[in-house]
Amino acid sequence: MLNSINIVPLDSAYVDTKYLVSSGERHFVVSETLAKFLETLKQSQTFEEAASAWSVWKGEAYTADDVRTIYETYVLNVLNTEPPKKKTFLWSKDILSRGQVDVLQDIFKVLFRPAIIIAILLLSVALETVFFMQGNKVSIGEIDLLAIMILVITMLLSSLFHEIGHASACCYFGEKAKSIGLGLYLNFPVFYTDVSDIWKLSRGKRMVVNFAGTYFQLIFLIPCIAIYLLTGNQIVKYLIYTINLNFIFILNPFFRFDGYWIMSDLIGIPNLRGKSNWIVLALKNKILRKSDSSGFWRQIRIKEQVLLVIYTVSTNLFFAYYLFFVIPSLLKSCYLELPGQVKRLVVDIAVGNSITFSLISSVTAKLFILLLTFYFFYKLIRRLFVHD
């Protein structure tokens, strides 16, 4: 088991050096002492040999039984413990296996060569500037079923290409993405990529991997903008606006999307959401005059302490706004507008009238939001009262 683990320094905001221990598909953050102990065990043939080397490093005598006890208490129990179920998504399903992802990321990793990145970004900025100077009004009007299917498929391909970007950047830096899948986060569906091995990389490289999805969608936009500038097609224009708006959503640092992981690496704190929740609990304990046994606050530098407090306050304000204003507003809109829109859609279909894209997209979006919101609250309530 020890021969299969990998130990590397973790680039983080901790005052003391931390190490990342990888065992199969799992990763652990450990202290320098435990990392050295694991290295000692890996380099030794017996516990007696490990005890001799460990005694020299620690400057005090350890027996083979002492080393065995440390191994069984602090190493074996952890490595043999089943990992907790992921709670990021209410539902998730891999759609591309590791083998399929390997093929794609090996093909596209070349796009992360510095010269290519600079050229693509300059071209993207130039085309985006020209596009937005054309005006922001979209007039699609009537649209047939084939056009709607093409639009939906193109949006899905854009999102999938986004995930291939994360995988390809991971591959460029010498690691491998494990899978690409589809999940339900809060009340909306999202694609995801398992790039957990990037914790072995430096913070700068991890940030490149996290930005890579947006970078690939900029690449996807290049032919789209060129087609629009040549044809003036309003459906293509609608697609370009949708992808650009998606950048704001994806780079939001509060949801567990690209922006969250970028913020985590920027501050240098793994499990940023968990640590921000810890601050709330620590404040509660202080008000109740309970002691804090974790010592986490003393483990990170002052600058990162300030950034973490700012992030924690901002996150809680954002989610309060989202849960108590955004979702109720969406539900109110569905309640007031959806029945009339559905009736109008049914009547138009029945009498053979042309159906506008705006009506179809509005009804579809409201039904989608309604169903996913109800599913979100169902899963939320189930988590609170039903323990698997």
TrEMBL record:
Entry superkingdom: Bacteria
Keywords: Membrane, Transmembrane, Transmembrane helix
Record flagged with keyword Transmembrane helix: yes
Segments passing through the bilayer: 111-133, 145-165, 207-229, 235-255, 306-331, 351-378
Keyword flag DNA-binding: no
Protein name: Peptidase, M50 family
Organism: Paraprevotella clara YIT 11840
